[in-house]
Amino acid sequence: MAALYAPMLATVFLGLLGGDPTQTLLARNVAAALTHLVALTVLALVLLRELPGRLGADPEYGARLVFFAALVIWVCDTAAYLVGITIGRRKLIPRVSPAKTWAGAVGGTVGGALAGWVCAQAFLPFITPLTGAALGLMSAILGQLGDLVESLLKRDAGIKDSAQLIPGHGG
Description:
By secondary structure, the protein is mainly alpha-helical. Helix content is 75%, strand content 5%.
């Protein structure tokens, strides 16, 4: 399965670096790239939900893992926003997302790690708090990269805000 999506993800992530082939591809086919990213996200959530049952653990843990992923990303986004508007000065990648700052990125990453630690103690009895923090850290970093990819695609498509897709969760 990874072999199927690796070329697509590599192409999208290269757009952050400004590679000409990627920018040309995205400019021609932004709708397809967005569709693939949404499909990949849904696929990942379904696989995450099914993982514990496939490994012989309680299938209920799958729903907890999906909630963990959503909660960590929401905390990361909120922390990044609050830290960014409070102390953020240096822009992260202004041509892709002009409002994002380095301070916000660090704040979001720390927030995601803390959320992972809390979630592990609160409702994930099958992982240690340190593992929860590590998963939260990785999820926060990947979530912010995904946010930058979405910003790049929106910029290429001329879309300012995508908040209508999931009301109450940014844009």
